[in-house]
Amino acid sequence: MLTLETSQLTRTFGEMTAVNAVSFGVESGEVFGLLGPNGAGKSTTIKMLTTLLPPTAGHATVAGYDIARQAADVRRVMGYVPQALSADGNLTGYENLLIFTKLYDLPRSERRKRVNDALAFMGLADAANKLVRTYSGGMIRRLEVAQAMLHEPEVLFLDEPTVGLDPIARRAVWEHLSQIRAQTGMTIVLTTHYMEEADSLCQRVAIMHHGTIAAIGSPNELKASIGKPDATLDDVFLHYTGDDLESGGSYRDTSRARRTARRVG
Amino acid sequence: MTHPVPAAQPAASASATNATGDAISGASEITATTHPGKPGNAHNPSNPRALRGKPTNPIAYIASFLKKTLTIGEWEVRKLRHDMTDVVTRTIQPVLWLLIFGEVFTRIHAIPTGNKSYLDFMAPGILAQSVLFMAIFTGIAIIWERDVGVIHKFLASPTPRGAIVLGKAIAAGLRSLPQAVIIYILALILGVHMNWNPLALLGVVVIVMLGAACFSTFSVLIACTLRSRERVMGIGQVLTMPLFFASNAIYPIAIMPTWLQAIARVNPLSYEVDALRALMLTNSSSALGLGTDFIVMIVMSAILIAIGARIYPKLVQ
Lengths: 265, 317
Fold this sequence. Notes:
The complex is a heterodimer of chains A (265) and B (317). With 265 residues, chain A is α/β, with parallel strands linked by helices.
């Protein structure tokens, strides 16, 4: 049963083809990872699937709704955690979530309970009424996951969910994502360039390179596929993307990642 | 078919605390509505689940649009409530204009202002100016929201684009009301002949909000086009000069050279000032027609917001 399906999904920016005829499916209840060096097309793919960016060609469905023709419906059935830490620092954690219960049309009588449940689940109950600018990076990230789940989406999209977090905060985010999946069966699609993250969270991963999918399968299948004993996902990654691990990333990406790291630090 | 926010948490992680102070705790007492993992939870394309809150007729659509607009406005107002510094510092500039520029020019009688004193004449102009100066830099906040991903989250939610832009315009209006209060208090102290008719006061509130909506949305359009904080800042500074001085804010249009009069007459600020002058003062009437003033401000704001709704999503593309 496919919850998400893309077919020949393509996006060009002028001369540059960021995503080139990408086709894949994500099973319901699966945690699916999009891997790749910076500039491989992961974020562009996520932006198309979350209706932020119209595709140039091809199509895709999220929970059965077409991302181009039924964008407004797609927005009601998916949750999205953007790459940068986007919770509003000038509001409390509670207020951040409350605003989104209204934007997602949750009934007035349920709002308070949903917000409190979501905060408690993410281990933020004690910090609910503190301004988010006093939160640590890991807490902000968990708040954002809580916000993206308030409306019980069919699919949760996370763009680089742990970029800029220290290893311990990163592990806490992973644990929460695993629990979400175990308890709700929610489908999760995430992008990452941390191999460890893909290995520990994802049932299946697609390795993107120059806008196409270079390999797709479970982490173990991919490790077996390169014919190297005791291969790690790092080896798989290098095998399919060559030495791009070092070279990718525009000035703007880098400056954004640094800024995120600074906000978090 | 729903999967509620999971409310229960395994005890194993309930006591874990990490070095950054991120307590992964506190949820174990909440046990309601635990949902067993059920992979069959997914959406069945042939039998779509009812989409919560999706408006199904035009009236429901308009109601939903207004509700979302107010939610966006609420978001901005809540931010303001936590940090009033900006609102407070923004009141300093109009105070200085009225106290220094106003007092001096009232004494030298250089500008023909008919039967009112120069201070009377300029008080509404300074209110319009302070609203303009505050609104014209709204775009900088939009760029910041783009950089940190706030805009992405709002655009990925079922919020009409027009509601986001309109909600921000209303918030800009609410942000300028404290300036009106300060100018009223100061004008009262300085002996400006203020009109306290409740209807006139309401009119002032509406015009101030329209002015803020108009110029803040203009700034949002600039931000969506130029896409960088520095450029928005630069253009904002370049634009405030001609908008302010090619208007009737601190001298009447009649004393301008013809070419400048032509510019002043297409400048929305002139209509805002004209309406404020008619509504704020006793013994004053509109030079351009109060009805015209309101229509110009409403139409300008509506056009800018409609354009904004179209180009705002491009900011993240």
